[in-house]
Amino acid sequence: MLYLSIPSPGSNSLELGPLTFNAYGLMIALGVMAAVTVSSKRLMDRGGDPDHISQIALWAVPAGLIGARLYHVLTDWKSFQGRWGDFYKVWEGGLGIPGGMFLGVVVGLWVVHRKKLNRPVLLDVIIPTLPLAQAIGRIGNWFNQEIFGGPTSLPWGLEIDPQYRPDEFINEETFHPTFLYEALWNLALFALMIVIDRKRILKPGRMLAIYVLGYGIGRLWIEAMRTDAAYELLGLRINIWMSAALIIGGLYGLARGRRDGDDELHDAVYAESDADPDSDDVDGDEVDTEELAEADER
């Protein structure tokens, strides 16, 4: 009988000539680069200045990493007892996506506000690329042999070395590659958001609700499969509660985000985002943000 499985890398680093890169950090960097590149192209297609994406990323990306690390440390603080000096070693793994989402988006919106850019258009341009970045970043978990589920004999079972296995599964060899499940889910979410954005069935700026809802649903079922140690609240992993909160928040955002057929203001925002590349409209000079907020409330 042919037994198939996915092998784990023998090292968590990659050597390119004389250079050695930590694979986890490299995958995160590649994910950020992919998101910035795709976002820049999307904004340029809408007549905007692609340099604005780099200006936002300059602040939002570090904030996202800090938020992700803080979330991980706060929700898994027991594992840092006796080694609090390691709290900054993000290259060893341990980034909580919900924390990164929150702080990264908040700081990104702050930059947009400070530069008086068109918030709805930039949200629709950037947000769909976040799951793309996450999908690439998750590959780093493969090199670290982390973020896996329970034992499985399925052909795509992941081989885990004994030193990385939970004590109760020390004699098992292959496990559900939940990091891969999440990466594939995020790629599908990225594709879905691009399609929804092109069809323009939501008010401008509501891609954030799609992302929060889609990520929450995926993380909910994937989190339930994981076997790594995690802080629990009322018998459930903390990230299951967080996923439920994301789903509720996403549904609320969508409920307020359906477009009315006669919503001329929002049609105007889309028209401006498709303006001539030499136009500055997408930067928010022609759209009154207070008027947009009032329209959203209606």
How would the global form be characterised? globular
Quaternary arrangement of the chains shown? Answer: single chain
Number of strands: 6
Q: What is the average of the pLDDT values?
A: 81
Q: Compute the number of structural domains.
A: 1
Output the helix-strand order: EEHHHHHEEHHEEHHH
Given the helix and strand composition, which structural class is it?
mainly alpha
Low-confidence stretches: 260-281, 283-298
**Could you give a short account of the major beta sheet?**
2 strands, antiparallel
> What integer value in Å does the Rg equal?
21 Å
Number of helices: 10
Strand order of the largest sheet: 1-2
C-alpha termini separation = 63 Å
Fraction in beta strands: 5-15%
